Amino acid sequence: MKKVLYIILALLATSVNAQDRSHFYTNLLNPFLVNPAHAGNGKGIQAVLNARTMLGGIEGSPRTINFGIYGSTNNDAGLGLKVISDWRGVFQLSNFEAAYSKRVQLNKVQVLNFGLSLGVCQTAIRQELLNSNVTLEDPMLTDKNLNKLRVTSGAGFTYKYAEKFEFSTSFPMLITGDEDINGFFVSSAHYNFKTGEKYTIQPQVNYYNFIYSDKMFDLIANASWNQTLSLSAGYRSNSSVIAGVGLNFSGFSAKYMYYMHTGNLNGLAPAQNEIGITFRFNKPKSKAPAQVNGTDEFSLELKKLNKRINGLMQVESTNPGLVDISKELAKISTDLAALTKKYTVETPEQMKELKAVQESLELMIAKSSK
Question: CA torsion sign, 33 to 35 to 40 to 42?
Fold first, then answer.
């Protein structure tokens, strides 16, 4: 065990900085872990648990466990929470962050999500692992930031086109305590090719702009059948081959990734293993619109707008020029837009009433513009 610990510490020393957390963010199974903008992606609530060993085959080797829960809200926003716990030799790193994202609908097929995360992180010494092989005067063991809570914050965005193409960039550890702004970022892009009704091929590229180690990229091909069974194969530029398999159901999915080291790490440890489990929950159903004398509020508001339009029609036919029709129509248009944003059409009657208001409004606008 002492020999193993010595090797691990030697590996850690090459990472330069015991406070560096960038290795958290090289996994492929939990995009929310990397990018807070993903808090607003998808429907319902998702809870994700990941576990990863960095040097499989070595007792006490670095490993990471993380948990995230996130979901979208009714006002185009997303909320989430992520917890990360990592062990590297005698160092244990913990990270707790809340995330917020905002969705911007550019048009019918293009969507932007912007996200921010804020929380605290801490690096601590695992005293039970210290032994004679460790030099207690080592600067890494006397770092002033050890056993100290520090504020951490990140930012990112995602761009989607028609559920086919997605590009994202995030700075997951942009701010940490009083350190300078960190330039580490992760960028990813993928495109979905449909081959028949049940098969999808997805090429994917990831780039990791590390600060304390060499830059890295992934080239991966993902394939899925009936959105249930998925297979992955690819290459990582640190001389690793990637393979993965996953199962996906309506409320649950699980995926396993295997990273086989073919370069210098192969002589020390043959592989890195990662597993991800996701649970999906539907959002709580919104309460039915309040009823007033047997009529819902949405219908009542639509009736009020219709009366305003009919009133303008009456004034225009009996007393032309008495009121500024264009100005009043603009107000009604604004009120109608706010109403359709506040309420959702849930019944055929509501749809009929909404169309009647829209048609009357368009007719009045057309007349006033002549």
Answer: negative
